[in-house]
Amino acid sequence: MGGEKREEEGVMASDFFWSYTDEPHASRRRQILSQYPQIKELFGPDPWAFLKITVVVMLQLWTATLMHNSGWLKMLTVAYFFGSFLNHNLFLAIHELSHNLAFSTPVYNRWLGIFANLPIGVPMSVTFQKYHLEHHRFQGVDGIDMDVPSYTEAHLVTNIFTKSIWVILQLFFYALRPLFLKPKPPGIWEFINLVIQLTLDAAMVYFWGWKSLAYLILSTFVGGGMHPMAGHFISEHYVFNPDQETYSYYGPLNLMAWSVGYHNEHHDFPRIPGSKLYKVKEIAPEYYKGLKSYSSWSQIIYMYIRDQTVGPFSRMKRKACKSGVTTKKGE
């Protein structure tokens, strides 16, 4: 792997793990396809994606209308134990759509992403796609992969208390980090995403009041913080084992999460929809059985907060050469 080990046991690191090899997924993809070419039959859109997204969007917007006159405690309870799962499901649907896994025509996926964005309350689907595809192409590359925390985050988040706050607010860090570290000029699609989202938000307030909109925003916020679904933010690439930089989760929440827990499989084959990722592991089990995986996202959050050796620096990074390709060991 080429990742540097921690110098002292029991002490949180003051820098990232640095790798001097390319990310592991492209090479594993080539190896698997050479041995199991039938995996290519799994490539392509999920024909049920549109229906699944529509059901969740309609259910969450309907629930928001029911919250128009609710007390704040009831609203928080419903948001945490119900709405948060729906909005996080839609966030991961947008992740699926960023890979064009609902329709063969890319623009249809973009429109569906804007639709899936509606109950989330804030426009993010178009911007997410721009940065997320770079995360796949340049995994861990310094200055490019905005999935990796900033040095500012890592230097501030150093103990149980600050890690707890960071977990609660991690959706904000996830969303705002690229805007500060690597801002991209907005285009027409960001404008469309913004206008449609603000129109929906305004309609919610006009017809059902501020509490209906507040419920949607609250569902997004709590679902992205100290919440079982949000454990995937940490489980996917935070390094608990220096010889591995991507981890899969094989627990039941994959049913609500578009199987994003199959994260090694997803990075190996981003053209396979979540509904079929389990088949990759079934077809080529020898490539995954030796990799560390998880069965609980809640446990990962607990481990992250309690383990004093783990923090925002617990990520694999690699330098980029001038051509934009990561350097090989010894170069």
TrEMBL record:
TM regions (residue ranges): 48-66, 78-95, 156-176, 188-208
Any GO molecular function: sphingolipid delta-4 desaturase activity
Keyword Transmembrane helix: yes
Domain of life of the native organism: Eukaryota
Keyword Transmembrane: yes
Function (record text): Sphingolipid-delta-4-desaturase required for the biosynthesis of delta-4-unsaturated sphingolipids and derivatives.
Protein's name in the database: Sphingolipid delta(4)-desaturase DES1-like
Record lineage: Eukaryota, Viridiplantae, Streptophyta, Embryophyta, Tracheophyta
